[in-house]
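Section 5.1 Outputs to date
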Amino acid sequence: MLKTINSLLGPDILHFLASMGHGDELVIADANFPSASLGNRLVRLDGVGTPQALAAVLTLFPLDQYVDHPAAVMAVVDNAEALPDIYDDFTDAITVAEGQSADLDRVERFDFYERAGKAFGIIATGERRLYGNIIIRKGVVTSMETS
């Protein structure tokens, strides 16, 4: 056990996150997502929902402040304007972690899969709600954050 580190973030996930560099992307995926076939690197977090995993990751993971959309979700098939409830959970987690809201980029399903296949890796969760997938882009930790 370590102080101040969310208990969902075990050693495999900590190593995973620490190995990523600025601009690398991480997918946090639901239970239906093809994580094993798309993931260059895969860590499982079964039994946990995607929003909870996202909130835990964001306690250590800075979002990229140099891009318009540091977080992306899969657009609803045949209704790209739809906003599943889980998107609110994602924006809430980002707002808490970053101190400001972030506009989620909505990416067409197959483009999302393609982008996920190029990501640094995937954390596969047990999330059962549809469209419970998010891609986040890693930012930088400033010297002010390390002291």
